[in-house]
Amino acid sequence: MSRRRTIRETVENGINDLDELQASLLTAIQLEFSTIPPYLCAQWSITSADPSGVAGLIEQVATQEMLHFGLSCNMYTATGASLKGEIAAPDFVPVYPATGLPGGVHPELVVALAPLSEQALQTFMAIEYPEADPVVPAPDLPPPPPPPAGPTIGQFYAAIAAGFNAVFPDGSLPTHPAPNQVTATRIGDDTLFAVNTVADALTAINEITAQGEGASTSPDEGTFDPGRLAHYYTFAEIYYGKTVVPSGDHFEYAGTPIEMPAVHNFSAQPSPGPDQQTFIKTFTALMTNLEKCWRNDFSIETAISDMFDLTKAGVFLIEAGITPQFTIA
Predict the structure, then answer these.
(1) Which is nearest to 74 in space by CA: 163, 181, 187, 201?
(2) What sections of 14-112 are H helices per DSSP?
(3) What pLDDT is attached to residue 2?
(4) Ranked by mean pLDDT, which of 37-46, 185-194, 205-214 comes out on top?
(5) Record's PANTHER family (predicted)?
(6) Phi-psi category of 183—alpha, beta or left, where left has phi over 0 and alpha has psi -120 to 50?
(7) Bridge partners of 263?
(8) How does DSSP assign 125-174, residue by residue?
(9) 150-168: average pLDDT
(10) How high is the pLDDT of residue 298?
């Protein structure tokens, strides 16, 4: 496989052959997963004093990130590539706090594992920042976070979509049906589907980008989940403390107030100990089993259930003031 390029290089130079397409998809897989630990830690930090149900809102986003991870894996294996040794690898998950995300996304953005806060929400909004400007104007207070340094994740996926069309101009992938595809009845409210054609890949890319940054004229997820806000606007509602509502021919943060929940504070650095080792062991099992899913050696439903064990271990650490360590042993 060709060297892994930065996302900026991919956006500026395009994808011209199969090696570049597969390298970009591998970056996409790693990128999608890299958002999950910080989102989970913010969700796990929320106490039962959560009158506006913020924990549930963040959980929906984290669940959709797992869907995006799965769709990216399906796109990757559909090109004939193998994920063996790629997911259950020590360097797959960033070491947090990370400056920038995999592939050089937002290279100056510091992404940490931290309790939910205004700072954490600013970081999450930067990660999910729309390719075009947000369609909902920011209120004056609290101060809107500055746009992150480009290119955006949406621009990266646009380059991948163009790459699929360039590498497979007749719309057919190397094998039909594609090998090592994972499908599930549901992941949250969505369906993980197989990628057997270029058209399937483009549908997957459209779903990933619409759920992350919203439709071009609306803050919701477009045809995929009409009426549900995209990730950027979900985090923005929590940050601005108001739901998004239509107002004439535009939208505003002027609806039902959203109250920031109480949170458990935890150490800025992970700590050793038996409970941390339990978390690391559980996380290693999850990643090993996820990789096996894309080799047809494991059930995705069983791997999803591993997430419940991880959540239990993670919440236990955070309530004890300890940062979970997302490390593969």
Answers:
(1) 181
(2) 18-34, 36-44, 54-78
(3) 46
(4) 37-46
(5) MEMBRANE PROTEIN, PTHR34400
(6) beta
(7) 46
(8) HHHT--SS--SSPPPSSSPPPPPPSS--HHHHHHHHHHHHHHHSTTSB-S
(9) 94
(10) 75
Question: What's the CA gap between 307 and 315, in Å, rounded?
Answer: 12
Torsion sign (Cα): 25, 187, 199, 297: positive
Task: Say if pTM beats, i.e. exceeds, 0.90.
Answer: yes
Q: How far apart are the first and last CA of the chain?
A: 26
Question: Average pLDDT of the chain?
Answer: 92
**DSSP H or E segment with residue 11:** helix 7-13
Residue 40 near residue 314 (C-beta atoms within 8 A): yes
What is the distance between the alpha carbons of residues 149 and 1, in angstroms, rounded to a whole number?
28
Asked if residue 254 is part of any domain, the answer here is: yes
Domain holding 217, by residue range, is 7-265
Structure tokens at 24: 């970009």
Q: Is the pLDDT of residue 317 over 90?
A: yes
Using the structure block, give the residue that is written with the tokens 């920042």: 129
- DSSP per residue, 76-102: HHHTT---TTTSSSTTSSPPSSEEEEG
Beta strands 190-192; 98-101: pairing state: unpaired
270 part of a folded domain: no
| Domain assignment of residue 155, yes or no | yes
- Overall domain count for the chain: 1
Calculate the CA 102 to chain-centre distance: 12
Q: What is the mean pLDDT of residues 107-120?
A: 95
Q: Comparing 310 with 4, which gets the higher pLDDT?
A: 310
- Is 103 inside a domain boundary? yes
- What's 40's domain CATH number? 1.20.1260.10
Tokens of 22: 């597969």
